[in-house]
Amino acid sequence: MTNSTVAGDAAPKRSAWHRLRPTKREVWGVVLVATARLAHWWAVRGWDEYLARRTGGKDVQFYFAGLSQEVVGGWLLLLSAACASAGLTFLAWSLIGRITRRPWRWVAIGVASLVGLAVALYIFVAVAVPGLLYVSGVGGCTRFEAEDGRSVLVTVAGMRDPGATIHTEYDAFHYERTRQGSELESPPNVGSGECQLTSEGESLILTCGSDVVEIEPR
Prior knowledge:
Elements: H1 3-20, H2 24-54, E1 60-64, E2 67-68, H3 69-97, H4 102-135, E3 141-145, E4 151-156, E5 164-171, E6 174-180, E7 195-200, E8 203-208, E9 211-215
Antiparallel strand pairs: 1-2, 1-6, 3-4, 4-5, 5-6, 7-8, 8-9
Helix pairs in contact: 2-3, 3-4
């Protein structure tokens, strides 16, 4: 067997590997899609599951310096939407570029455009819109502090619970769900500045206009 024959056999193998080797766009596409999936999972389920394991099954949520778990979750959903859109675009155009026959390439472009439009609509409605709502404060929460330094967190129609829910302090970064605020007939008045938290012994009293809620910290 001559050297030219060996070289001739190796060339097709190198060419086949070159065609199969992922491009930079494909690698970035996979990374972005994986990032989108992770961000969405953490915002919707992962954070709650982690806190439940960490606290022995207690229902707690993050809140620190005016930044709530709802708002952080909203930003994660927006990150997920952006990464998913960019990643799928990279993957689609890179895979279409691997098609060498021009007629089939145009067919692939047409199919990818239709599928991409459907996926983009789903990402916008199911991921981006909820993220924008949470970031803008819809379904947000308000912190009230009594004169003795104790505080409560009132969430309104949030990602986890409909209606008003009252949380008491768990630690420096978290509040534990204590009860539903069914006495608050109109949740918007919670964040309107009409509410006041006072202490009566071990109990806390939240007054919002004519609505009064007695809270027993756990």
